[in-house]
Structures are given as structure tokens and as C-alpha cells.
Specification:
mainly alpha; globular; 11% strand
């Protein structure tokens, strides 16, 4: 609710300068760890056809070899002005989903840095004081909007009759759809594989039971 200060942006800059080293440290511990690889490589395989069948999006889909990223394909907000490559893996297993998320952390730092530079060069035209208050009333009709969130497609469907509040609002989240595919990914595996495979889908429970 306040204008973004240079001091605040500088703190973020300090964080994204330090974070790549932290990610390197994480990778030294995890990426080539034989126990981690044994528990994830070849486990929870989700081929592209299966991912599409279950409406999987985001990192879980890109870990199955499908280079679908709404930030690229639909270019909303400031994304068309940013330089980045979507993380994709063709492994299709739990380890591939881990690889994609490690790549995405590095991509995220690059995006933040570019946004900071954009904000600093446009700080006169993008301030809270320039945003005028308004009364939001949804006109009669049906509307759908969506973004690429950290766990896949996040979409909102609204149906309104022109009254003060819409009478139907439905959210679609990446976690909600990822839960459906879990039984398919666990076929042929043992009980001890459940947590590793489930964890690789990066499900947030409040997104499922919302």
C-alpha cells in the first residue's frame, strides 16, 4: 500500500546477489546425492501424454518435456519485456521435476533483477499515488483470466448477473490438478516411494482444499 522505495529494492538486490551461492550449496548436497537419486530417478514417471490427460501445467508439465509457459506463449504483464528461458526437462520422473524447480529458482532471480531495473527506471510513472480509487462491479456475463503461477496455471472463472457481487467464482490451481495424477504415478512403486513422488509434485494442501 506504499510506494516502493529504493532502500527496499536494494535489500532485494542484496538477497538475489547472495541467493545463487545458496542454490549452489543446495545442489552440492542434493543433486548428485546417491540416496536422493536412487529415490527419485525412474520414480513417479509422468509422460507428456499423461500430464496432458490430467490437465497438468507449470513445472510438472515442463518436467515431462512440454515447453508450455504462459509467460512466453501469452506474454501478459511485463513478461514480453523480460529475457528468460523456461526450464524444461525430458526425464518425466521425480528427479526431472526437481531439476526443473532448481532451474526455475535461478530463472526467478534473473526475473527479479530485471524487474528491479525496470522499476528503478520507471519509478516516476509507477507509484501508488498514481493509482486512482475505483468501485469495482463486474458487468453481466462470464469471464476467465489466468496466469502462470509457481505451481502451474492459476485461473479464475467468474459468472455475474450485473449485481454488486458475482454469483459464481471458481479458482483452478496447479496443486488441485496435481493431486489427481498421484495414483497414476505410484503404480508399480512401494509405500516408501509415496512421499518422494508426492513431494516432487510440489502440492500445497490449502490450494487443494480451498
Amino acid at each position: 500500500r506504499f510506494d516502493i522505495s529504493n532502500e527496499w529494492l536494494n535489500k532485494i538486490t542484496d538477497f538475489i546477489t547472495q541467493m545463487p551461492k545458496n542454490i549452489d550449496d543446495y545442489e552440492k548436497i542434493i543433486t548428485n546425492n546417491p540416496i536422493f537419486k536412487e529415490r527419485t530417478i525412474g520414480k513417479g514417471i509422468m509422460h507428456k501424454q499423461t500430464a496432458i490427460k490430467y490437465s497438468i501445467t507449470g513445472p510438472n508439465l515442463r518436467a515431462s518435456g512440454s515447453d508450455l509457459d504462459l509467460r512466453k506463449s501469452h506474454g501478459y504483464a511485463i513478461y514480453p519485456e523480460l529475457d528468460f528461458i523456461s526450464a524444461v526437462s525430458h526425464r518425466s520422473d521425480s528427479y526431472g521435476r526437481y531439476e526443473v524447480r532448481m532451474q526455475e529458482m535461478r530463472t526467478c532471480l534473473s526475473l527479479i533483477r530485471q524487474c528491479i531495473l525496470w522499476l528503478k527506471s520507471n519509478n516516476e510513472t509507477n507509484t501508488v499515488s498514481n493509482v486512482k480509487p475505483f468501485n469495482f462491479k463486474v458487468p453481466e456475463g462470464e469471464y476467465t483470466s489466468y496466469i502462470e503461477s509457481s505451481r502451474g496455471l492459476l485461473s479464475c472463472y467468474i459468472k455475474a448477473d450485473g449485481s454488486e457481487k458475482p454469483y459464481r467464482v471458481k479458482w483452478r490451481t496447479g496443486s488441485f490438478y496435481a493431486v489427481q495424477v498421484l495414483p497414476e504415478l505410484l503404480k508399480g512403486h512401494t509405500m516408501c516411494d509415496i512421499m518422494a513422488v508426492f513431494g516432487s509434485l510440489d502440492v500445497i494442501i490449502p490450494e487443494v482444499d480451498r
